[in-house]
TrEMBL record:
Entry protein name: Fasciclin-like arabinogalactan protein 2
GO biological process: plant-type secondary cell wall biogenesis
UniProt source species: Glycine soja (Wild soybean)
Signal peptide, first to last residue: none
One Pfam family matching this protein: Fasciclin
Domain of life: Eukaryota
Main location (coarse class): membrane
Length: 216
């Protein structure tokens, strides 16, 4: 799971007073947006400077009290309340989809969904590439030094030099192995769908924590 990038957030949640709110909502529906380990690592200095109450609000900001499948998020663009929403403290963000991409926009920064960690109605957890920063706790300038968001690496373009004979040889040469595009597609499919081991570990660390409190 640490390779897929949700252990750090699960650890923060486990040791916080935000966990009971997750537990109380999971039975009726819960959607969690889990920042990657690298995003949490880059955000750590800011997190340490928050008060305990602010830390709780930030963690609650990464979940909504309803089950939202990926298809539902793609078709329901607009403002979404979170577990931190209460009275004048809006703690909301805007969901925006473009094709297959879904982004979460606060007044401070924007994060993208980069994978589905687990989807077992009424609970779903997504991996996002940034820590969501609510305007109630941060200002726009605070996002400038946030860790770079993870994004797919663009395929390298071949140089146009020595085009003549090289292009001819490449056209005649047999395909001895899978193409780069094929390998990239396999990697994308693995990241999108996850592996069974990831799901098991995620259930143990995150979903298992929440469900465990329900039977106490």
């Amino acid at each position: 799971m640490s390779k897929q990038g949700c252990k750090a957030f699960a650890d923060l949640l486990r040791g916080s007073k935000a966990l009971p709110a997750f537990k109380e909502n999971v039975d009726g529906g819960l959607t969690v947006f889990c920042p990657t380990d690298s995003a949490i690592s880059g955000f750590a200095p800011k997190y340490k400077n928050l008060t305990e109450a602010q830390k709780v609000s930030l963690l609650l900001y990464h979940a909504t009290p309803v089950y939202e499948s990926l298809q539902m998020l793609k078709s329901s663009n607009g403002i979404m309340n979170t577990l931190a929403t209460e009275g004048a403290n809006k703690y909301d963000f805007t969901v925006k989809s473009e094709g297959e991409d879904v982004s979460l926009k606060t007044k401070v920064n924007t994060a993208s969904i980069v994978g589905t960690l687990i989807d077992q109605d009424p609970f779903v957890a997504y991996k996002i590439n940034r820590v969501l920063m609510p305007r109630e706790l941060f200002k726009a300038s605070d996002a400038l030094d946030q860790a770079p968001a993870e994004s797919p690496k663009p395929a390298k373009k071949k140089k146009n030099a020595k085009k003549g004979s090289e292009d001819s040889d490449a056209a005649d040469a047999p395909a001895d192995g899978p193409s780069d595009d094929s390998e990239d597609q396999k990697a994308a499919d693995q990241d999108s769908n996850g592996v069974s081991g990831l799901h098991v570990r995620l259930v143990m660390v995150l979903f298992g924590l929440i469900m465990g409190f329900l039977v106490l």
